[in-house]
Every structure is written in structure tokens, then in C-alpha cells.
Amino acid sequence: MLASEDALFRRLIPWLLLFVTLLFASGPALNRWLARREVVAGAGAATMSEGDVALYGGYFGAGLGV
After folding, report:
1. Rounded CA Rg of the chain
2. Buried (b) or exposed (e) across 18-27, using 16+ Cβ within 10 A?
3. Cα separation of 22 and 56, whole Å?
């Protein structure tokens, strides 16, 4: 991420904000849907989710507090 250009970061910002906004807005409905289906996240899914959050936080750290 340190090696990426400023132009790449500028192109990613709107998509990162859109993704996190949609995820935040759909969180309660997604939780209800997963609970009804008794979905349990495995180790792989949990690791991927952690990686996604780490990538987002590393690239756009100020948004993690939102």
C-alpha cells in the first residue's frame, strides 16, 4: 500500500466509502438473515473478514472509527 500511487488511492476512496456504508446500513438485516439460517463462520471466513478489515483500515484508517 505504501508503494501505490496517489491516483490509485483517489480512485479507491469512493468505492471504499460506498462498501462500508452499504455494509453498515445492511448490518442488522444481514445479522437477522444469518441468524435464521444458523450460519456459523468458519476459520477461513473469519480470517478473510479480518483481512478485509485490515486492508480497509490500512488504506483508509480514519474510516474504521465510523
Report:
1. 14
2. eebeeeeeee
3. 14
- SS3 assignment for the chain: CCCCCHHHHHHHHHHHHHHHHHHHHHHHHHHHHHHHCCCCCCHHHHHHHHHHHHHHHHHCHHHHHC
For 57, residues 6+ apart whose C-beta sits below 8 A from its C-beta are: 63, 64
Per-residue pLDDT, 13: 82
**Model pLDDT for residues 34-44, shown as the tens digit of each residue:** 889 888 878 89
- Amino acid symbol at 33: W
Q: Is the pLDDT of residue 3 over 90?
A: no
